[in-house]
Amino acid sequence: MPAAWLVAPAKAAGTIWNEVTGDAGYGLPVAGVQQGDALLSRREAGGGRALLRWPWGDTLGDNARPAFDETAAIATLPPNATDPMVPVRDGAFWKDPARWLLWREEAAIHAVDTSGRRQKLVLDAPPASLLRPALQREGGPVEVYILARDRLRVLRARLPRDGRAAARIEVATDLPLAAGAGCAGFARDGRPAVGLWAMAAEELTLLLFHDGHLHRAAIGGVRPLSPPAFLADSNGPLVGVVVQSASGIGLAETVFVPGRGITLTPLAPLRNGRKAALVYRPWGAGAPRAHVVLATEDGSFHSLSPGVAPSRLTPPAPPVRPLVLVPGGLGAFLLCCDPMTGPEMASV
Q1: pTM over 0.85
Q2: Is position 183 within any domain?
């Protein structure tokens, strides 16, 4: 099914949106309606980058509210600014009016909220990446998980929200393999969990850390196309990744259960996958549900989900980089950005 409009586009006429990267945060939906913030970074004519916030809302359902439709300038950043991030919350997004937004400049992680409070954490060296999403408990600090430059450690950074206490590294966890990508999420017990994938000797290994323990499982004959995604499954914390095999596109998953291996679920008989995004929607009818957007080598996009026939996807505007997929009240949304009118969301 082609993408349908679910969220109103932002009004940004007169501005050219070049080289846009972004992220979108969210919380738990209320009455089937989801809302959150998108944070976008675009290249400016002078070579720097503009950082902009876009509040968005799901407009489906009997209790729908109009989407917010204006972008707000947050800061002008140097050309090396990267990794825009919006924390995912463990409750309704609207409960906390102070919206925290993050980005990175080389080894420095910056955070600012919409009331003007700021935090900054300088690492010993630029990391390989920040793991998406950042996490925020209701009334608690922002937590960011960091894949170290050597890809053999994960650091947990704590950014207090009151602005008085300093940001700091709380935990450093050694990895048994050099990780390629990772994710974070809240488990059902409220504690954070971290999932990663690693490739070694033509074998994909999924790593899942929770409550001081490590679960790992491996599978051969596949290559990862997406960062991992986390689900607080009823059987335990779960991590999944979209993979390409000789027979097509699949979803590789493992759950935090001793002795549990990797389950590979076919999604589509496509052999030209280039990159993908994966998100789990743990609420609503038929939940939990995995939603996938796949970009293929020929430039086309596809919407995939276990047990559902694959469909060609026609985004209303170019998707931001990297692909950003977020769960809505009833489905999932892909964050896009029109070069003339700015950010917009489409259903997948």
Answers
A1: yes
A2: no
> Using omega within 30 degrees of 0 as the cis cutoff, is the peptide bond preceding 322 cis?
yes
| Contact criterion met (CB below 8 Å) for 293 and 323 | yes
In a domain, 25, yes or no: yes
CA atoms within 13 A on the CB side of 182: 30
Domain that holds residue 86: 1-114+130-148+314-348
Kindly state whether residue 95 falls inside one of the protein's structural domains.
Answer: yes
The tokens describing 151, both together, are 């890809």
CB-based contact 94:109 (threshold 8 Å) = no
Count how many domains the chain has. Answer: 1
| pLDDT tens column, 38-58 | 999 999 988 899 999 998 887
**Exposure class string for 217-226: b at 16+ Cβ within 10 A, else e:** bbbeebebbb
The Cβ of residue 231 has, within 10 Å, a number of other Cβ atoms equal to 26
Going by their DSSP bridges, the two strands 168-174 and 181-186 should be labelled as unpaired
The answer to whether residue 327 is domain-embedded is: yes
| Residue 344: DSSP 8-state | E
| CA dihedral sign of residues 256, 261, 267, 271 | positive
Beta strands in 9-128 (DSSP E): 18-26, 35-43, 49-57, 72-77, 81-85, 88-89, 100-105, 108-113, 118-122
How many other C-beta atoms are found inside a 10 Å radius of the C-beta of residue 245? 17
Q: State how far the Cα of 105 lies from the Cα of 122, in Å rounded to an integer.
A: 9
| pLDDT 10s digits, 139-167 | 889 999 999 999 999 999 999 987 678 99
| Strands of the 49-57 sheet, one edge to the other | 18-26, 35-43, 49-57, 72-77
- Kind and range of the H or E run holding 313: strand 308-313
Q: Which residues contact 307 (CB under 8 A, 6 or more apart)?
A: none
Side-chain-side CA neighbours of 176 within 13 Å: the count stands at 13
Contact (CB, 8 A) for 296 and 273? yes
